[in-house]
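Archive entry: two folds, one per protein. Generate the first.
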Amino acid sequence: MTEQPLKIMYFSPVAGSAAHDDVFAAMARDHKLPGTEVHVTSLPEANGRFGHIEFRSYEAMVTRGIIRAARQAAKEDFDAFAIGCFYDTALHDAREISGDMIVTAPCVASCEIAASLSNRFGIIVGRRKWVHQMAATVREHGHEHRLAGFYHVELGVTEFQADHAETERRLLEAGRKAVEEDFAEALILGCTMEVGFYRDVEARLGVPVIDPSIATLKRAEYAAVLKRQCGWKPSRKWSCEAPPEDEIAHIGGFDEGEIFGNRIVVPAEAPGPARQAA
């Protein structure tokens, strides 16, 4: 029997557009395993025309959409669900509602990978505004003692793509400070819109540079492989307890109406012909 492909949903908690979602579909195409199918999804505009969620008030507004998306992905038998925001917005909330599906997000995924490559890492962020919240997230995930620091470049999410040369200059300047002054042995780019910038920064600074969108996808994929091969499914005891289905049905609002805006499917590659015995 042919094994079903791994199914990963990469969800951007903003109002999707072809240009925005294509960036992450291309990332998935370049980095997924051949046997993995990736669905790149985003919020419908009915949830608000969010182009970013840099502010806590924006996060609060999209949290409902993330929970609904995670629940729907679990119903569609996805193996893993990736939340595309470095704040790890609604990570615990989505996990609670996701059944046997793995849920991860950029900060936790990137820190886990950085910790496997180095003893000490720095995080380059867009704006100083982000640092307070991201520091709390790093602390919650248990990586504070590995953190060399946060290095802001004073660019908002939507500004990273405006002038690539200027973005790269600022990333290099921040990265050089982290590596040469604060002795970071790896770097994380703390914004999921920076797809592709990591290669040039890595080549110039000589340390691993982790793109958070790639990290999130690969961490989700790895967890899905472990679930299939080892049977390691999410816990649903104690703090991980899921709400009762009859109560969800009584409350309403979890499943009704449009849940996704765009959806781009990056299919698994068809297996090649079986090799004939010599």
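Generate the second and append.
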Amino acid sequence: MKDTQPIKRHAAIVELSRDHHFTLLLIWKIRNGLKKSIEAERISAYALHYYDVELKSHFKAEEDLLYCKMPADNPLRKQVEAEHAHIHRIAADIKANPSDTELLKQFADDIDKHVRFEERQLFNYLQETVAESELAKIAPLLNARKHEDENAWKDAFWK
């Protein structure tokens, strides 16, 4: 069995990893709601709320503060930017078709793959290549971001 130690994150990236934890919880909630045959419109309402309140600002912070430190032609940067654009498109599709369970499944699956790519590959690359002085400037900006209380959403369809 392979001994896997937790990855030590730089303070500039810790907050983004925390966001990822809550995003993985979103994925679990979507999948659990679908498994329980909850109306797709209820799941879509929550998914779009989370997207509007948390994911869009998370993506913007990553792009404006961290990914801009990479060359524009870097393959990892191109991949992450393409994935962000793809997730924005799926959210728009869900908004137009809130009863489509296949879109909800795709949304959950694609976000899951995206988070794991960032955590396993992209963040490691950034920690190795972005100067410590640059990362130190980013940390307070990421830590200052506001988040919604996770208990604010009253329709706990996933329970």
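Annotation attached to the second fold: DSSP finds five helices and no strands in the chain. The chain has a mean pLDDT of 93.
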